[in-house]
Amino acid sequence: MEKNSPQRNYAAVILVFLIFWVISLLTNILGALNPDIIQSFHLSLAMVAFLPFSFFIAYGVMSIPAGIMLEKLSEKPVLVASFFLAFLASLLFALLPKFSVALPSLFLIGIGMAMLQVAINPLLRASGGEEHFAFFSVFAQLIFGSASWISPHIYSYLVLNLKDYAGGGNALISMLAQVVPPHLPWISLYWVFAAVSLAMVIVIILYRLPKVELKEDEKAGAYEAYAQLFRSKTVILFFIGIFAYVGTEQGVANWISKFLQTYHGLRPEIEGANAVAGFWGLMTIGCAIGLILLKLMDCRWVLVGAAICAMITLTLALFGPVGVSKVAFPWIGFFASVMWSIIFSLALNSVDKHHGSFSGILCTGIIGGAIVPLIVGWIGDHLGLRFGLLFIYITLGYILSIGFWARPLIKNATVWGNNQ
User: Fold this and answer.
1) Using an 8 Å Cβ cutoff, are 310 and 205 in contact?
2) Whose C-alpha in 31, 47, 147, 181 is 20 to 30 A from the C-alpha of 40?
3) Distance between the two ends of the chain, CA-based, in angstroms?
């Protein structure tokens, strides 16, 4: 412990937490914006679903190349480039608020976020110490969830104050009113995103980051490692698991506000935004409670229980009356909260080598967040959004199945024993 202590840099840990917070702020706002985007650009459900598609497909394109970049360039250039790309993309959409501009803008923001996701975990391990890595990782997820809860409230505040703006208000609102089209008050969010991204560029340039030596299981790996992994049935099944989870998360979150508006007449900037915020807020709370459950029982049974409860709450959200629906949607987030970490850990614990390359493959599965909302929107255009959201039962069903067929080499440790 003594020889390692000089390497601990808790200021860098705080910086990583801040990066997690900003990633979440930029990533999980589309669900709240969907009704306004549909109205502003006169889009079908399938067309608006191309927005999350453009964002999340970037993870499929960039996750593995970002790992290679990290090994060649180190963390600081990757972090600076990521946020500068997010700044340029946000500014582009803020200046040219058109649907044709939104797609490449969100793709570029997604590229930046994928690069950040790859870079910050090794940095967190090196800054906080390996012995604290698990704790700090979970705490980072809680911070991530808090920003997802806050961003719909920021949207609500800006839209309500900029809509029919007639002067007055605080300095922020007055300044945004000068640059935001009166009929597109939600575009103000992208001015905020541009400012936040630029601020992060400056902070990272000025900050002296600790040197990070990547462990073998954090390196991207050679072509041969990927070829070997892709021949494994286990790898493919868990890739589909990550695809199904992110598809479930984004497939629900992206359509909550539009569903409540369509079937219950609720306002996107108030009740819709609150429901989306509640989804991410309860996901954060569920993450904390999940930590306790994972110390009491096999993670596979936690996953099974979470999937069944998510199916029940999805049913209540889709077919219940307005009071039940607007409460049930956020609770889907609560039950989904443990799914990512359990699927990811079961996957890595099911192979005995090439963990870094496998992690890159799993992160590529985040493209589920691009594909599933698009499928829901396409079905929704033809049969109605309620029918489209029935597709989420398929992804939840696959997640449920993982709890029965997963055979990890190492089981999660509980208070009752090591379980290896």
Assistant:
1) no
2) 147
3) 26
pTM value is: 0.81
Q: Which range in 95-109, 145-159, 161-175 is most confidently predicted, on average pLDDT? A: 95-109
b/e string for 170-189 if b means 16 or more Cβ within 10 A?
eeebeebbeebeeebbbbbb
Q: For 171-217, what is each residue's pLDDT tens digit? A: 888 888 889 888 899 999 999 999 999 999 999 998 877 666 656 55
Residue 264 CB burial class (10 angstroms; 0-12, 13-18, ≥19): middle
pLDDT of 6 > 50? The answer is: no
| CATH H-level superfamily of 5-405 | MFS general substrate transporter like domains (1.20.1250.20)
Residues in the chain: 420
Report yes or no: 62 and 212 within 8 Å, Cβ to Cβ: no
C-beta of residue 296 within 8 angstroms of C-beta of residue 219 = no
Query: What distance lies between CA 135 and its chain's CA centroid?
Result: 20
Specify whether the CB–CB gap between 377 and 386 falls below 8 A. no
String of DSSP letters for 77-135: HHHHHHHHHHHHHHHHHHHS--HHHHHHHHHHHHHHHHHHHHHHHHHHHHHH-GGGHHH
Q: How many CB atoms lie within 10 A of CB 10?
A: 12
Give the CA radius of gyration of the chain: 21
